[in-house]
Amino acid sequence: MIPMNITIPKIHHSDSKNFFLIAGPCVVEGRDICFEIAEKLIKITDKYNIPFVFKGSYRKANRTKVDSFTGIGDEKALKILAEIGKAFNIPTITDIHESHEAAMAAEYVDVLQIPAFLCRQTELLVAAAVTGKVVSVKKGQFLSGQSMQFAVEKIKAAGNNNVMLTDRGNSFGYSDLVVDYRNIVEMKAFDVPVVMDCTHSLQQPNQSSGVTGGKPALIETIAKAAIAVGADGLFMETHPNPSKALSDGANMIALDNLEAVLARLVRIREAIL
Q1: Domains of the chain, start order
Q2: Which residues contact 54 (CB under 8 A, 6 or more apart)?
Q3: Could you tell me which of 188, 254, 179, 249 has the C-alpha nearest to residue 221?
Q4: pTM value > 0.90
Q5: In whole angstroms, what is the distance from residue 212 CA to residue 92 CA?
Q6: For residue 270, what are the contacts with CB-CB under 8 A and spacing of at least 6?
Q7: Which of the residues 2, 106, 109, 187 could staple to 131 if both were Cys, CB 3.0 to 4.6 A apart?
């Protein structure tokens, strides 16, 4: 269910009592694979009346190694996101990393996402806010849920009340993350929708290989607990073949496995309402 305090354009099933889903590949790898993923996700979310936002990063700016894949080209990737939004009449989301990217990305997508490491960057938050697009801010791995009230205040002070927050876990040592579910409750107190990132909260960063690891087998576990404590939405990265994904494959849920997981999550949502 999309809370009444936010408006996401083109969202389907907005009157459903289900959680909403932000899902798609980590990065836009090409037109064909993005359309394949979008079509499958739309079929699943329509079946279960789940409001859905298609996700894809047009560029990955924060890779560990200099030779890691970052994207197919900004404009090319953004045009693919725009094409998906238009072809299926669904909202799309992508992340931005610098202030000058906000206006550019806003021409192609409906929601701008602020990465966790950048959630305190005032200039970036304001640049996203003044586009008039929905702004989704990921909570930094180094912050409490309570501290995210200031990110919300910055965006609203810029004249944009369409803001939501996403929890993606907290750093636990150098190479792991844990989820403190109190953060969901604390962030909901700011009167904004709260999303649980079930993908990146299971990352295992700072690997000696220079490639971030993950525990995708626990995605469903993280999601179940998030719904139980009141998360409004879920964020999941997915791919037809995660082992072949060009970015963050170690954290993704396989596309063919997603429907069964969502079906179980819908039942949990129904049970707590």
Answers
A1: 20-272 (3.20.20.70)
A2: 23, 24, 38, 41, 81, 84, 85, 88, 90, 91, 92, 93
A3: 179
A4: yes
A5: 25
A6: 17
A7: 106
